[in-house]
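TICKET: design request
STATUS: open
ATTACHED STRUCTURE:
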């Protein structure tokens, strides 16, 4: 059992700087229960925070910038000039520099600091390791600097770091899940108004579990497919004379007004997915957890057939989980690999995971990983 991220972050801080941190700040990864590629269309999402976190051990430091050390051991230093120029700090440290850049861009003055990171959020699995990194660093710098940045405004700053400094055109879901989630709840977020409702989500009470299967098929937002989906959606909204696809009120009329079949499919996914989020929330409010299963499965079919963002590994995981008795299953996250979630009877989780493992072996795919996810808290100071 590896050390907890907080232990690793603290040890790393001591080893790198020969001093104790002023504090430890944790921010989680997430799974998205439903609502995929709806966030940048001003729509609805329903993620929940994982117990997996990235922890930033940090202390203010008199000097000319920021130093950060992570798993690879060698500290990365950047000064005010690099923090002022998007893209100047490459690799994972660019997310840290991006947070400094975005805070300054929002009118704040983050303090020069030393940081050390520890994380158990799987990287490249579509579980928002980037948002966890941004959110842990953001929360640390806000606290260390006594910056007056309310919690509900923090996700947009972290998103700016990723959009404008790192250059990934993500929406606001992942940073919102990492910052604003509540333990035992899913986060119902209106991505236009940024209003949230914390929806109780304790499936164990109903004898259920959310099984997360990591397909181990590589997942990348940076190669153009994500950006391509986003620009198709934005162009479709413009062609329909709308601010965003969220504003489609008559799907048939919208589809009839578009002449490109691919665009029509992308629009159909977004509009029907928004409705599935609303329907899921309604069922959860009524305590009808098992009944969300078909909505999860319909979401997957829509991502596979209309949005074209699934890969054979995740399709296999979903089909196998359903055959093995899951109430519903879908890919979660941006797509092109990553994880599948399946709503299963709690005592069937290992059986379902085992069926997926065998199906992967039969097809010659790399072995998947799995765990049962329970909703954890959003970003917080640990000590
Ligand atoms: C990725 C992005 F970062 C999110 O903003 C969201 O668009 C998601 O893909 C798809 O729902 O995680």
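STATUS: resolved
RESOLUTION: sequence designed for all positions
ATTACHED SEQUENCE:
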């Amino acid at each position: 059992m590896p050390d907890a991220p907080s232990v690793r972050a603290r040890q790393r801080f001591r080893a790198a700087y020969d001093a104790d941190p002023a504090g430890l700040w944790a921010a989680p990864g997430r799974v998205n229960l439903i609502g995929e590629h709806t966030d940048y269309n001003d729509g609805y999402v329903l993620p929940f925070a994982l117990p997996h976190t990235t922890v930033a051990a940090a202390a203010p430091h008199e000097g000319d910038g920021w130093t950060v050390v992570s798993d690879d051991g060698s500290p990365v230093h950047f000064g005010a000039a690099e923090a002022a120029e998007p893209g100047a700090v490459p690799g994972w440290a660019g997310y840290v520099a991006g947070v400094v850049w975005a805070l300054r861009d929002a009118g704040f003055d983050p303090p020069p600091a030393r940081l050390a990171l520890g994380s158990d959020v799987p990287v490249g699995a579509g579980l928002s390791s980037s948002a966890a990194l941004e959110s842990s660093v953001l929360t640390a710098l806000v606290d260390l600097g006594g910056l007056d940045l309310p919690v509900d405004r923090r996700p947009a700053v972290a998103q700016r770091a990723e959009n404008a400094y790192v250059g990934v055109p993500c929406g606001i879901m992942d940073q919102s899940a990492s910052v604003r989630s509540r333990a035992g709840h899913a986060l119902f977020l209106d991505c236009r108004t940024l209003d949230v409702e914390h929806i109780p989500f304790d499936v164990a009470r109903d004898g259920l579990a959310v099984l997360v299967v990591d397909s181990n098929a590589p997942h990348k937002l940076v190669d153009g497919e994500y950006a391509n989906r986003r620009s198709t959606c934005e162009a479709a909204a413009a062609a329909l004379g709308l601010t965003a696809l969220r504003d489609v009120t008559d799907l048939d009329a919208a589809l009839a007004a578009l002449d490109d079949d691919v665009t029509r499919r992308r629009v159909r996914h977004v509009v029907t997915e928004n409705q599935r989020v609303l329907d899921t929330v309604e069922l959860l409010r009524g305590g009808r957890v098992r009944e969300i299963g078909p909505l999860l499965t319909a979401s997957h079919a829509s991502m596979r057939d209309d949005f074209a963002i699934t890969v054979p590994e995740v399709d296999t995981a979903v089909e196998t989980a359903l055959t093995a008795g899951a109430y519903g299953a879908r890919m979660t996250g941006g797509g092109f690999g990553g994880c599948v979630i399946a709503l299963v009877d709690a005592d069937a989780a290992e059986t379902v995971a085992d069926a997926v493992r065998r199906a992967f072996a039969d097809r010659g795919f790399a072995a998947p990983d799995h765990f049962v996810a329970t909703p954890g808290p959003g970003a917080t100071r640990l000590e």
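CLOSING REMARK: The longest helix spans residues 261-285. The chain is about 40% helix and 20% strand.
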